Amino acid sequence: MVDGPRVGVHYPRSVGELQAWFPTDADCLDYLEWLRWPAGFVCPRCDHVGGWRLADHRFECAGCGARTSTTAGTIFDRTRTPLTVWFTAAWMFASDKGGISALSLQRELEIGSYQTAWTMLHRLRSVLVRPGRERLTGTVEVDETFIGGAEPGLRGGRARGKKVLTCIAVEIREPKGLGRCRMGPLADASATSLQAFVTDHVEPGATVITDAWQGYRGLDKLGYVHDRRSQRAAKSRGEDPGELLPAVHRVASLIKRWLLGTHHGSVDTAHLPAYMNEFVFRFNRRRSRSRGLVFYRLLQLAVDHDPVRYHDLIITKRPERTSPPPPESRGNPPSLDRPPANRPWRTPDQPRSG
Ligand SMILES: [Zn+2]
């Protein structure tokens, strides 16, 4: 057994290796199959292990006879975009420190429509929340802030109306530095909303640092060590009351800058939680030595995930139109097929390299 995925064997180390490994859509499909069923086909309907591969690349379960494709039930289900294009998009999404906007993706990969590029990025974003993922531990700062809504041309009340009250939690590392973060929208700043956020995202036993807002009262009864910091006390000690919670404020300014930079502030309120998830995913992997590992993790989550279709994404709102409006036709990009690869992820017991 391998102890964790290895660079150069289980995930590519560079964009050059990405292109060498995945020259055809069939190579991409094989990689997804290996990620989804590393020990061989398992029927998603009856959990039977083992089956036959059909001529159309689907599997037939040896137990119940159901036929399943590798991408069925994943975000790649019934996609009309070739997998080579998906892999390049996933690489760009995972490897760029700031992520990528739909407009840039459309231009870079010559995707026919803005709508297709926008939907691809939202499908990738949709896999970034794992149910039951580990909560933050140790010493954690928690505070609320308003995020989004800084759209050019909107002033005063309207602009404010588009901002979303967001709770942010950040681990503090000793002697200094930040650990992981979590964030999410809040209905309001009531004790009910704030306590629900803290219990969802912070492990009991942790020390939770907040300001003196009454909504945070009672955290000690929920199993946390509550460190309340009052602005008045800070002032009387001669400290800057604006720097009571420096870690949360640092993360808040990073996501605001990212939304304004990469996405030009054109993120609508309905989809803001998905952008928050993307920010958190990338922030928590900011020290990852290999961007390829982030790509691997992204695709691993993607094959585990229920399909997301364009219509699911636009129930509440159409894609933002501050960028050029999506053309009416849905252009399907050409495949990026190249000569075949040797599929290193299928080669057992390679010597450790890199
Ligand atoms: Zn079955």
Give an account of the 3D structure.
- This protein has 354 residues and is of the alpha/beta class.
- 34% of the residues lie in helices and 12% in strands.
- The protein is built from 12 helices and 8 strands.
- It has helices spanning 15-21, 25-36, 83-95, 102-108, 114-126, 156-161, 191-201, 231-236, 246-261, 272-283, 291-304, 310-313, and strands at residues 51-53, 59-61, 67-68, 139-147, 164-172, 178-185, 207-211, 225-229.
- Strands 6-5-4-7-8 form a 5-stranded mixed sheet, with helices on both faces. A 3-stranded antiparallel sheet has the order 1-2-3, with no helix packed on it.
- A hairpin with a 5-residue loop joins strand 5 and strand 6 (178-185).
- Helix 3 packs across helix 11 (291-304) and helix 4 (102-108) packs across helix 5 (114-126).
- The longest helix is centred in the C-terminal third of the chain and has 16 residues, at 246-261.
- It is elongated and about 75 Å long.
- It binds zinc ion.
- The site of zinc ion (ZN) has 8 residues, from loops.
- Zinc ion binds at residues 43, 45-46, 48, 61, 63-64, 66.
Bound molecules: zinc ion
Distance between the termini: 18 Å
Poorly predicted ranges: 154-160, 320-329
The total beta strand count reads: 8
Structural classification: alpha/beta
Give a short synopsis of this structure.
This protein has helices at 15-21, 25-36, 83-95, 102-108, 114-126, 156-161, 191-201, 231-236, 246-261, 272-283, 291-304, 310-313; strands at residues 51-53, 59-61, 67-68, 139-147, 164-172, 178-185, 207-211, 225-229. With 354 residues, the protein is α/β, with parallel strands linked by helices. It has a 5-stranded mixed beta sheet with strand order 6-5-4-7-8, with helices on both faces. The protein has a 3-stranded antiparallel beta sheet with strand order 1-2-3, with no helix packed on it.
